[in-house]
Amino acid sequence: MLIGLLGKPSVGKSCFFKAATLAEVEIHERPFTTLKSTEGVAYVKVECVDKEFNVKCNPRMGYCINSNRFVAIKLMDVPGLIKDSHLGKGMGNQFLDDLNEADALIHVIDISGGTDAEGNVVKPLSYNPENDVKFLENELDYWYLRILKKGWEKFVRTIKQDNKDVKKAIAKQLSGLRVTEELTEDVIKNLKLSHDPETWSEEELYNLARELRKRTKPIIIAANKIDVPGSKYNLEKLKERFKEYIIIPCSSESELALREAAKKNLIEYIPGEKTFKILNEINEQQKKGLEFLQKFLNENKTTGVQEILNTIIFDVLKMICVFPGGVNKLSDSKGNILPDCFLLKEGSTAIDFARVIHTDFVKNFVKAIDVRSKRIVGKEHVLRNRDIIEIMLKK
């Protein structure tokens, strides 16, 4: 599962990335601090099943705090995009192409209006963040259109000469963007395009590219710097203007400060929670900083960073978490209790789960057992979020 993190320069993308991954990245309030795409591991939070069985889990990947299980996903920080990135300006084509494999995108904007169109720091509330939403949509749509139209005349001739199915040809052309035949057929039908691509106008081609982009690269908006006075006014205006988007306010700086303090064992902090606990003696400066952070949490409930990660995985991409386990034994051969937790698409079945664990499990699959109910289920049994499933194999 790969999530792309993008936006114009200096809006706090790298700070968001570091807060989510604790990776060492350079953070400065100047354009183009990030010069190449960076991948890291972030985590979504789910309620662990260990407390139901009165045990403490031992995750092989991720971690668990007080029965809050953190499951790994990949996060990619893409360097700041600027106007006409799709034409190659500012290495934009390279940065956009880095997003080919992304399942979804988080668009980080400066909701305080303190960063202009080129990524320069300006007076808060002096720039309209609505412009950033329209700008990014435009760059992504024209990126898809560029790939779609690559060698278009030859592409159209080949379809006609070889009597090829247009949906298959377009899906092949855009396969790197995860465009499928089924999706292409559905979009062509919804847009009421003719079966002869030679007759398609520029506007129809653009609409096709735009719809395919929306279907294959869903976006949520991270309204960053919500801690800056006046930002909430901009947030309400943005939500009113773009009702089709999920827009979540956040303060990546606050989240980063909390996670760094937790890393140094100064506090106990569960990402996404509205409070934290001081563990060790702190100096006066640290005390003031933590008081400021607690005041922010009291007013906003969370920093927003964990909520954004969870929302894009569970609400936008419609994923569920499933735990492997045994009816008689929740540990693996090394004694680790509930060591794994897998992300699967909603609607996944027991046989899909077996495939995720190991490809050999598919051919040796006999049955599955719902560990909670101890009920035997077949390969087509549809799984639910937080299920614990034992896969029985041929001996």
Describe this structure as you would to a colleague.
The protein has helices at 13-21, 92-97, 130-148, 152-161, 166-173, 181-190, 202-216, 231-241, 252-263, 284-300, 305-316, 350-357, 360-363, and strands at 2-6, 38-47, 63-65, 68-77, 104-110, 219-224, 247-249, 267-268, 277-278, 319-324, 342-345, 365-370, 375-377, 387-393. Strands 1, 2, 3, 4, 5, 6 and 7 form a 7-stranded mixed sheet that branches. The protein has a 5-stranded mixed sheet with strand order 11-10-14-12-13. A two-stranded antiparallel ribbon has the order 8-9. The chain is of the alpha/beta class and 395 residues long. Helix 3 (130-148) crosses helix 7 (202-216), helix 5 (166-173) packs across helix 6 and helix 6 crosses helix 7. The radius of gyration is 24 Å and the shape is flat. The chain is built from 13 helices and 14 strands. Among the domains are: 142-215, Helicase, Ruva Protein, domain 3; 319-393, Ubiquitin-like (UB roll) (Roll). Helices cover 36% and strands 19% of the residues.
Which SSEs are present, and which pair or pack?
Blueprint: E1 2-6, H1 13-21, E2 38-47, E3 63-65, E4 68-77, H2 92-97, E5 104-110, H3 130-148, H4 152-161, H5 166-173, H6 181-190, H7 202-216, E6 219-224, H8 231-241, E7 247-249, H9 252-263, E8 267-268, E9 277-278, H10 284-300, H11 305-316, E10 319-324, E11 342-345, H12 350-357, H13 360-363, E12 365-370, E13 375-377, E14 387-393
Parallel strand pairs: 1-4, 1-5, 5-6, 6-7, 10-14
Antiparallel strand pairs: 2-4, 3-4, 8-9, 10-11, 12-13, 12-14
Helix pairs in contact: 1-9, 3-7, 5-6, 6-7
